[in-house]
Specification:
Monomer. Belongs to the cytidylate kinase family. Type 1 subfamily. Belongs to the EPSP synthase family. It is found in: Cytoplasm. Residues 6-215 form the Cytidylate kinase domain. It is a single chain. With 218 residues, the chain is of the alpha/beta class. The protein has 2 domains: 1-29 and 119-212, Rossmann fold, CATH 3.40.50; 33-117, P-loop containing nucleotide triphosphate hydrolases (Rossmann fold), CATH 3.40.50. The protein contains 9 helices and 8 strands. It has helices at 16-27, 34-48, 55-63, 88-97, 101-112, 127-131, 145-158, 165-181, 203-215, and strands at residues 5-9, 30-33, 67-70, 73-76, 79-80, 120-124, 137-142, 194-197. The strands form 2 sheets. A 5-stranded parallel beta sheet has the order 2-6-1-7-8. Strand 4 and strand 5 form a beta hairpin. Helix 2 (34-48) crosses helix 4 (88-97). The longest helix is centred in the last third of the chain and has 17 residues, at 165-181. The radius of gyration is 17 Å and the shape is globular. The two termini are 20 Å apart. The structure holds cytidine-5'-monophosphate. Cytidine-5'-monophosphate binds at residues 12, 34-35, 38-39, 94-95, 98, 124-126, 175, 179.
Amino acid sequence: TPVPVVAIDGPSASGKGTVAARVAEVLAYNYLDSGSLYRLVALAAMRAGVALDEEPRLAALAATLPARFEGGRVWFDADDVTDEIRTEACSAGASKVAVLGAVRAALLGRQRHYRRAPGLVAEGRDMGSVVFPDAAHKVFLTASVESRAERRYKQLMEKGLPATMESLLQDLRDRDARDAARSVAPLLKLPDAVLLDTTSKGVEEAVAFVVDFVRNPA
Ligand code: C5P
């Protein structure tokens, strides 16, 4: 039987990263944060001086990413880039390289490689649609744009980084529109995905919902 996959897709700042990592822990499954791969491609491009629209060169960088995930940290060659890939520059860069079909294709095999026993929780935008279309469990995790902006606002405040609700709302709306409108692997709720709206749910409640869905399929 194929290794089971829990595919969790959804928009930016929906809390899906936190929920997915925790679900993987509870189920003792492997975990893939696919967004970090797009962030790493953006980082690799910036380091190599490759413009974010040079598709063939970006695809070559994506195919040879010297990246490792270990103990919750992200490594690029010998550098711990866990924080660097979360900067605004890498976030914006990731969403630009993510529209390129050749980049997405170059990352496909690497993502599927994470599918190892006893199972995988994979999180992103196209886990259920493109990377693991045969996933037994598909979740579309979302929340209102206001609650996502609030969440991000709190995170930035905790880190002492400047932000305004207004600009965060605008940024999320722009990113949602880009993710939904792109021609390759747009973000959408699949007919065979369950909807999990976390607008008024805490992390533990959302985790319990997904774990229950995996253990007791309808
Ligand atoms: O999820 P995260 O915010 O880290 O993703 C960073 C960027 O990578 C997003 O802007 C999104 O457009 C892109 N992405 C994607 N497909 C995925 C995961 C992320 O296009 N499976």
